[in-house]
Amino acid sequence: MNPSVTQKERIISLDIIRGLALFGILFINVGAYQLIIEGAPMPDMSGMNGVIDSLINIFIEKKFFSIFSFLFGVGFYIFATRAEARGDRPRMRFARRLFALLVIGIIHIFIFWGSILAIYAVIGFLLLPFYSAKVSTISKWLFTIIALHILALLGQMYMPSNALSSAIFGFLGNDAVAIFIMFLSGFLVAKADWIGHIGAHSQKIKRLLYSTFPFFIGFSLWIWFGSQADDQQLQSIIGLGVVPTTYFYLSCLFILLEHKTIAKLLQPIGRVGQMAFTNYLAQSFIGTAMGLEVVSPSDIVVIASITFIIQIIFSVIWFKFFTIGPFEKLWRYMTYGKKVVSKQS
Fold it and tell me: Which stretches of the chain drop beneath a pLDDT of 70?
């Protein structure tokens, strides 16, 4: 059965969100490129640079990686169900896909130390046992892991430290747990069929938006004042706000992209998201090639914006001639072991 127009538009929406996530990730990675150079001077954080740095902490830091992680979970469900529909073994095929990602990710670490690909591959294996689980079972697991993660972060901030508690809080409060939370969130939403029928679930999504909005405001203020006071717990505060803020962002985006005018306007960004793997790798090549010793927050805004505009133009042109990105083609070949036709007919 061919997908309906609505389902096709839903895939475009995912591509747009993925493209926007890449833009946010650029803001973090551009700042990380300077750390590659040993002994480089620290950037100026006075005046407007300090304000921009605080705004990045509030609106971008960890949030867009989390959106990317959510979409990875959605992608797992879509990939596995399509594999099963073809008569393939979904878990084995996805495991092979993850192993291919791990190989590419290990190579990528030698180019950019901040690569997330190998980490995604390893954590992705934890999704496999949930493939046949009920939505209610996944929901219970997700709620439990979120609760433990939040308690661990609070424990790191406020509980007296000893060897045992530090080990437990450090494990449960780790960024890897936050990544898995978003993997599982994306998988759950896809399995509950929200992705295919956003309109039908719009009231639930709006309730999620309204319930997470106060958390978004509260954590934004907390991070702002923490940034101004140079709070030593700032990263923990940011970590606490990641899940509700990411849910708020995603709710907003899914509702906004139901409007065809907005979706059409942002479609060029969707092209970036359509070849997200290639564009993510390209960002690190660009950053390494720059060889910058000092990157101030204002520099980050300029470099990230220019780089993303270039990627939009490149992606739009690319899809006039090809149907798949170059590294997506490689990844698919490593997954299936056969050549992929990529030229437009």
Answer: 1-10, 33-41, 287-293, 339-345
pLDDT number for residue 4: 31
In a domain, 260, yes or no: yes
In the 8-state DSSP scheme, what is residue 35?
G
For the chain, the first-to-last Cα distance in angstroms comes to 22
Query: In the structure encoding, which two tokens stand for residue 331, read together?
Result: 């990844």
338: Cα within 13 Å, side-chain hemisphere: 2
- Single-letter code of the amino acid located at 66: S
Q: Is residue 292 assigned to a domain?
A: yes
**How many separate domains does the chain show?**
1
pLDDT tens figures, 278-307: 999 998 877 666 666 678 899 899 999 999
pTM to 2 decimals?
0.92
Q: What residue has token string 């300077």? A: 34
Q: Which amino acid is at 21?
A: A
- Residues 299-330 as b/e (b if ≥16 CB within 10 A, e otherwise) read bbbebbeebbeebbebbeebbeebebbebbbb
| Pair 20, 265: CB distance under 8 Å | no
| Tokens read off for 127 | 């999704």
Structural domain boundaries enclosing 248: 5-336
